[in-house]
Amino acid sequence: MAIRNNVIRVLFVLTVVCGAAYAKRSATKASAPVAAAPGPATGTSCHPVTFDIIELGATADGKTDSTKALQDAWDAACGMDGEHTVLIPMGDFMTGPLNFSGPCKGYVTIQLDGTLLGSNDIPKYNQGNWIEILHVDNIVVNGSGTLDGQGASVWEDECKVLPNSLVLDFVNNGTVSGIKLVNAKFFHINVYKSKEVTIKNVTITAVADSPNTDGIHIGDSSEISVADATIGTGDDCISIGPGSERINIQGVTCGPGQGISIGCMGRFKDEKDITDITVRNCVLRNTTNGVRIKSYEDVLSPITASKLTFENIKMEEVANPIIVDQKYCPEKTCADKKGANTVTIKDVTFRNITGTSMTPEAVSLLCSDQLPCSGMELLDVNVEYAGKDNKTMAVCTNAKGVSKGSLEALACL
Ligand SMILES: *[C@@H]1O[C@H](CO)[C@@H](O)[C@H](O)[C@H]1NC(C)=O
Ligand SMILES: *[C@@H]1O[C@H](CO)[C@@H](O)[C@H](O)[C@H]1NC(C)=O
Ligand SMILES: *[C@@H]1O[C@H](CO)[C@@H](O)[C@H](O)[C@H]1NC(C)=O
Ligand SMILES: *[C@@H]1O[C@H](CO)[C@@H](O)[C@H](O)[C@H]1NC(C)=O
Ligand SMILES: *[C@@H]1O[C@H](CO)[C@@H](O)[C@H](O)[C@H]1NC(C)=O
Ligand SMILES: *[C@@H]1O[C@H](CO)[C@@H](O)[C@H](O)[C@H]1NC(C)=O
Ligand SMILES: *[C@@H]1O[C@H](CO)[C@@H](O)[C@H](O)[C@H]1NC(C)=O
């Protein structure tokens, strides 16, 4: 199997089926070993091979294009039975788009110890994303390295379609842990049509005025969990779009940014329902929104968001700590095409939400008169106004449900 100028060959010394027998594998670059060539086969499992991108020709100077070395490392690791690792060692490596497509024969770990810098040659990104993990099962991305999207120089160019940094599309059973993501050109992590993905212990940072730099966006996916993450960007820390179910967010510290959002919903035709979302044990610091549900009013096909729980959340100087907005319309062009609202929002619990709000309206439940929000619960919601000239309050329209244990001024149900 030729992977670089026909000089690198992965030799299958023994060909076996993983788990059923054992193999000795080695990879060679010309005559030098590329990867840790295992000693004589002794176990009942395959020998893991590490594909170190430096040995495959990458240059750790932050300038030389190392795309090919990374792509070759992926293609080799993905093409072998067994558990193999793509290693990005310490150092700065510049790359363009990386097409990490499966299905893979075995299990691949991408170990990121160094820093990958996303090229600013935008026309190269014809796949739409920077690092695209597509149709891969059992993928692990870990280490303590950094994915630096180098977005600052392209953010002003808002007319261009900019690439997301790390994309998991059609992934089953994935883990992303330990890594840092900074200055994505667009979203930092985008999870789409995936199942059983865990994102934990990641740090995501972009300046507060960077456009569309959502930390993690999840859409059309199920059983996704985000835990112990620190996220501060110019857009939503986490946004959960249509088609998401059984999503668990916990231990996230968010700010600056626009908070943790469900939606928006109703922007496109044939969107799928959102259900069973839990956001727990989070801190929101200096964000424009805390926890938010947003939907357009003029919707093409009906959609329901239900069983949404937000609990044990601390707000620190958040502009709009709790906000449900069924008349979301950032483009301000919705008034003239106000259709029959068909986004249903029901069974939403806000429990044990404390801290401070930068505006008097700590709670806003702005639901539609045609289809009011139902099954809403405000339980132990105690958010105080951080300013001096006014007092905390709730603004609620067309919301039905119960309030218990909350500040009287916020108990609007
Ligand atoms: C990515 O790689 C896969 C598998 O090798 C290939 O089928 C696909 O066309 C590639 N995509 C792009 C955008 O190059
Ligand atoms: C999920 O992926 C991990 C890492 O590759 C692997 O160890 C584990 O066995 C996989 N789980 C299932 C259910 O396949
Ligand atoms: C990364 O994941 C692999 C496979 O699950 C594991 O063996 C390794 O210890 C992990 N490394 C780190 C730094 O977490
Ligand atoms: C989180 O990731 C860092 C590397 O970025 C690592 O040093 C640390 O041990 C990880 N923490 C946990 C609890 O896994
Ligand atoms: C809050 O965030 C804004 C940018 O959104 C920043 O200018 C300001 O310094 C932050 N305030 C605090 C107290 O962190
Ligand atoms: C309420 O949430 C805070 C975190 O914001 C947590 O420390 C506390 O234990 C929670 N209280 C209850 C009764 O669960
Ligand atoms: C308090 O805040 C509300 C809502 O923003 C506003 O309508 C009202 O005028 C404010 N009152 C004072 C005394 O500033």
Automatic annotation (TrEMBL):
Which Gene Ontology MF annotations are present?
galacturan 1,4-alpha-galacturonidase activity; polygalacturonase activity
Q: Which keywords does the record carry? A: Cell wall, Cell wall biogenesis/degradation, Glycosidase, Hydrolase, Secreted, Signal
Q: Which domain of life is it from?
A: Eukaryota
Question: Which reactions fall under this protein's catalytic activity?
Answer: [(1->4)-alpha-D-galacturonosyl](n) + H2O = alpha-D-galacturonate + [(1->4)-alpha-D-galacturonosyl](n-1)
Q: What EC number(s) is this enzyme filed under?
A: 3.2.1.67
Q: What does this protein do?
A: May function in depolymerizing pectin during pollen development, germination, and tube growth. Acts as an exo-polygalacturonase.
Protein name from the UniProt record: Exopolygalacturonase
